[in-house]
């Protein structure tokens, strides 16, 4: 069985050595990995280059958020490094426009906007001064992402349909919070099964602990890939 390219495994591990062990264990069952901020601090960029050298795809989930000039130069440097297939930035208009400028003509690196962090609820947004709820802000930011010309967004399974509806069939909708039927939720508040996330509009699923903390990660990855085969993308 070849790996399902829609499955992205989050390497949320404390050291590069542990991340490398996991990649070795997963072998050909996984072809796409997410390197986040935790691993960045312990050799994540070298790990990303190694993954690319081994023919894997790499999602750098660094959620850039700064003035336009800084985001533009950072994006250009990351893309020039050649070890990035997907990069996240916060979905604010100036930030997204800067990332698109920084990426330049290098279309193989896709930019994703993080609309609203899954840790925020309506009350948090009110305290931060936003005059709208979570769904309304997500919808607004997806529209701004489309206007900025980025390639897609990160969205929870419960909000993926908003991004799919607004972004259209080719828009990337990358969805964390995926749990196989009957699995532990951990701290994921709004989880869905792989099949339901895909049916709801996701193009890619990000899965961490259900695979990384499984007694047999390879078997867990294969089981989730099999569940993904049961998911059909909705007709949008
Ligand atoms: O929960 P899991 O280990 O599968 O997490 C996979 C990814 O989901 C994490 O790397 C993180 O980016 C994201 N996440 C989230 N909300 C949470 C927990 C994790 O969006 N509450």
Describe the protein's topology.
Elements: E1 7-10, H1 16-26, E2 32-35, H2 37-40, H3 44-53, E3 57-64, H4 68-80, E4 86-90, H5 93-103, E5 110-114, H6 122-128, H7 134-148, E6 152-154, H8 160-167, E7 172-175, H9 194-199, E8 204-207, H10 209-212, H11 217-229
Parallel strand pairs: 1-2, 1-8, 2-3, 3-4, 4-5, 5-6, 6-7, 7-8
Helix pairs in contact: 4-5, 5-7, 7-8
Bound molecules: cytidine-5'-monophosphate (C5P).
Descriptive key words:
236 residues; alpha/beta; TIM Barrel; eight-stranded parallel barrel; 11 helices
Would you kindly provide a written description of the structure presented here, covering whatever features stand out?
The chain is α/β, with parallel strands linked by helices. The protein has a single domain (7-227), classed as Aldolase class I (TIM Barrel, Alpha-Beta Barrel), CATH 3.20.20.70. Helix content is 43%, strand content 16%. Helix 7 (134-148) runs parallel beside helix 8. The longest helix has 15 residues, at 134-148. The radius of gyration is 17 Å and the shape is globular. The two termini are 29 Å apart. Residues 10, 12, 36, 61, 118, 176-177, 186-188, 206-210 line the site of cytidine-5'-monophosphate (C5P).
